[in-house]
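Exam revision sheet. Question 4 asks you to relate a sequence to its structure. Input first:
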Amino acid sequence: MQREQLADFLRRRREAIRPAEAGLATGPRRRAPGLRREEVAALAGMSVDYVVRLEQGRSSQPSAQLLTALARALRLTDDERDHLFYLAGQQPPSTEGVALLARAGLIRMLDLLDATPAMVISDLGEVLAQNRMSMLLTGDHTHFTGDKRYLIYRWFTEPESRVVHPAGQTDRHARQLVSDLRAVVGRRAGDPDVDRLVARLRAASAEFRERWEEHEVKVRRSDRKTMVHPRVGPVLLDCETLVTPDLRQQLLVLTPADAEARERLDLLRVLGTQEFDSPTDRARPGVSPGNPAPHPLR
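Answer key, structure tokens:
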């Protein structure tokens, strides 16, 4: 572990990011152009004290999970992420494994889509990054570990994960999830990560087993669906999916399908801003404009 080099790299990368790039509001009291340490801590889901110790070169060796979180919070490119891991005395995550990081270009696109819910998802359905509006709409899906990382696994093993969809649309959504996974299995034949996920789903859910045996295949590229939010109600959305050339990551963009949906998203954005401006939320660890408190939709 190269503590001094790691400390210098983290400090310079933090100072180089504009708050707007991380989905944070800028105010008149902000003196430095970069992020504050407490903002990096909130975005990465770690304590401010640990960020301070990292930047002062007196921390213990960070785990791969913490380094991954820091790379996301600091919007590091693939090369910068690998450099971060090497400085910390760790091997960078394999691009072939399931522990993928959202590509830097997709992260920048998320930042540009400030008023539109958007997220980066792996081909297996792991949410790798979300912008602020996506978190306000559906909650934070980037903190899960194990099999719960995958949207499809939570769908078939945790009934509460379906609350976001109207009852009349759950069957259709379930079929879409399974048929999309079928396409991934065909494309990544023999991949142990894919095979293990399917095996665990088959063992955990009779409903999944039944749908899996139907052998339906369909890659979802565009869709229209309703998402139900506990505060603003149902929101009708058009879903567009942009995929990377290797088909391993997707940028999912959710745009309002009508005037009513646009008004409800606007209301949600205002409600979120009011919550983040309250002294109570500012005092809560892990709550920031880029990392809102979870709501029952998770």
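Marking note for examiners. Confidence is low (pLDDT under 50) at residues 276-298.
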